[in-house]
Amino acid sequence: MVVLNKIYTRTGDKGDTALGNGERIAKHDTRVEAYGTADELNCFVGVARLHAEGETDEALSRIQNDLFDLGADLCRPDMEKDAEAEYPPLRMADAQVDRLEAEIDVMNANLEPLRSFILPGGAELAAHLHVCRTVARRAERLATALGTRESVNAAAVTYLNRLSDWFFVAARVANNGGKDDVLWIPGANR
């Protein structure tokens, strides 16, 4: 259980922060960038939810919770020491990826295949979902960069990859089932 009775602690005033295992590292470390970007994405999902209803809003709510799980996973290095931890660290699970894939398949079933790339925009919700898509891709790039020097849970990286796909398909759904997608016209303004 998390208890926060004091919001500022002054422990990070010199540019470092504590990870989930208590280790202190620089706030600009790739690990902090990765889970910080997941937090940023969560904020953008919250904005998108202002324009979502029904199942889309419910799915975005699940994604927000998953993004906290993702942050908890990424802020805890040393996966090989998980068994030794006093409390088992929270790690992303393949089931979370599977759920995204199932949701993508349901959303995509009624969409016409794309014949062109699409531009971010259209309906307000679609535009917000495209922002979420690009921030998810940035979080994924940071997580894979981190993975070049430290262990990173493969399910976390896969989740981010699939999540950006989810946002893309959901944006098409928000654009009147793809009918209001804004198509890219190569060289249109030459």
UniProtKB/TrEMBL annotation:
It is an enzyme of class 2 (transferase). Residues 7-174 form the Cobalamin adenosyltransferase-like domain. Its EC number is 2.5.1.17. Signal peptide: none annotated. The keyword Signal does not apply. It catalyses: 2 cob(II)alamin + reduced [electron-transfer flavoprotein] + 2 ATP = 2 adenosylcob(III)alamin + 2 triphosphate + oxidized [electron-transfer flavoprotein] + 3 H(+); 2 cob(II)yrinate a,c diamide + reduced [electron-transfer flavoprotein] + 2 ATP = 2 adenosylcob(III)yrinate a,c-diamide + 2 triphosphate + oxidized [electron-transfer flavoprotein] + 3 H(+). It comes from the Bacteria. Keywords: ATP-binding, Cobalamin biosynthesis, Cytoplasm, Nucleotide-binding, Transferase. Its main location: cytoplasm. Pathway: Cofactor biosynthesis; adenosylcobalamin biosynthesis; adenosylcobalamin from cob(II)yrinate a,c-diamide: step 2/7. GO terms for molecular function: ATP binding; corrinoid adenosyltransferase activity. One of its GO terms (cellular component) is cytoplasm. GO terms for biological process: cobalamin biosynthetic process. It is found in: Cytoplasm. InterPro entries: CblAdoTrfase-like, CblAdoTrfase-like_sf, PduO-typ. Belongs to the Cob(I)alamin adenosyltransferase family. PANTHER family: CORRINOID ADENOSYLTRANSFERASE, CORRINOID ADENOSYLTRANSFERASE MMAB. This is Corrinoid adenosyltransferase.
